[in-house]
Each structure stands twice: as C-alpha cells, then as structure tokens.
Amino acid sequence: MISLRLPVISCSLDPASISRRLAERSATLLTVAGHQSEVMDLAALDLPPFDNDRVFDSESIRALHALIREADGVVLAFPIYNWAPSSTVKALIEATGATGNGRRAAWFDKVITFVCAAGLPHSYMATAALGQSLMLDFKCVVNPYTAYFSERDWSAESLTVDRAARLEKTMTVHAELATLLQGRTYSSDWEV
C-alpha cells in the first residue's frame, strides 16, 4: 500500500467546534489506514484577512500553501452557517489559490473531501458551490462522499453508529481516489 500525504484542515474558529472534532477523527482514520495525516487547525494560526496583497507575506499562509501543494489530497472540515460553508474555508482557498506576481495556486489537481458540521440536516447540499469552484478553477477531484453531520447525528460525545460508518467510508474513498490519481499523466493550470 502507498502511504499518501492526506492532511485535514480544520476551518472553524469556534473554540468548541464540532467540525474540529470531526477533523481529528478523520485524521485518525487516515492514519490508521497507513497514511500521513495530521490536523492543521486554522484557529491555532494567526491568519490575516484576505486582502489579495499583504496576506501573501504571512508565514501561516505560506505554510498552508506548502501543506496543500505537497498533499496528495486534502480534507476540509468546516461548519455550515446560513446554508453555506463558513467564510474561513473560503478565505483559506482564496489565500492559497491566488495567482499572479509569481504565485501559483496550491489546489491544482487535488483530491478534496468535505467534512461538515451543521445544526440541522437540511443544508446537506451547502457544499455544492464550493465543490464546483474547486473543480472548475483548480481541476480538483471532489469526493462525492461528503461527510455531513448535524446535531442529530451525535449520541453524547460520539457519532451514532451509522454516521461513524459514513465518516469511515468517506475517508476510505478519499484515500482510494488519491491513490488512483497518483498515476495521472496530466498537470493542470488556469485553463477553460
């Protein structure tokens, strides 16, 4: 088996974040499966606001860019607010996906998996626009097994049995897609 670099980025700034707990579980599942996976917690970094200028001088943004660029696949764990992914995940993609002035986006050709925490089950399609953007802009392969969990999917501090199985399947598919795409013969850049 090939050991892949499959980082998990926790994109919640909430100190009591449920999506952070899901990020940690995701990284554990990937590590147990034999891959290199760690959680990069955006709440622990000093992230500047995206201004398309000074943001690129930030050591945190440079480290995130390198992490994403060198990864075989990336898991994005984030909360759903107001029927959409949190603004933090969008700011991450903007800061590490911008080009110009000698910069190249980190996201090209990555396998991306979404792990989401939400209050209610109704927003399960909230990742559609984000997924479409990653596919069209950066030619990412988006895992169709989104791991979407609402408050109803928890029993005390644990996911219910069926939802825990969904998270495990989602991580299995993530690693399998990244493995299969290791032999791709193409490399993408900005193109229509």
The percent of residues in helical segments reads 25-40%
Q: What is the total tally of β strands?
A: 9
The helix count comes to: 5
Structural class: alpha/beta
Shape: globular
Helix-strand pattern, N to C? EHEHEEHEHEEEEH
Instruction: Determine Rg (CA atoms, Å).
Output: 16 Å
Major sheet description: 7 strands, mixed
How many angstroms does the end-to-end distance come to? 35 Å
**Mean pLDDT figure:** 94
Low-confidence stretches: none
Beta-strand percentage? 15-25%
Structural features, described:
It is a single chain. By secondary structure, the chain is α/β, with parallel strands linked by helices. The chain contains five helices and nine strands. Helix 1 packs across helix 5 (161-180) and helix 2 crosses helix 3 (87-97). The N and C termini lie far apart (35 Å). 36% of the residues are buried.
Protein traits:
192 residues; alpha/beta; seven-stranded mixed sheet; 5 helices; 36% helix; globular
Compose a concise summary of this entry.
With 192 residues, the chain is an alpha/beta fold. Helices cover 36% and strands 18% of the residues. The protein has five helices and nine strands, in the order E-H-E-H-E-E-H-E-H-E-E-E-E-H.
